[in-house]
Design goal:
79 residues; mainly alpha
Amino acid sequence: MTNTAPFENWDGNMFDLGPLYPMVGTEVTLVVILVICWIGWHILQIRQENKDYEDEARRLREGGNLQKALQDEHTLERM
């Protein structure tokens, strides 16, 4: 890990100062890690939402709840 250069004045060549922030050169690696985490989060989110959807659909199918929900919806449309 490189240390940041001291910045005492604006005179001189900026390239002689060295790195101005820590972890220079790790940008590509960090972006790759971020993209992997982002895609992984989406996969987990889709799986959880599909599970919730299936649970809700199963609950509505049991005991005629789906028919009751549809009848209530048609009743509201007529009002």
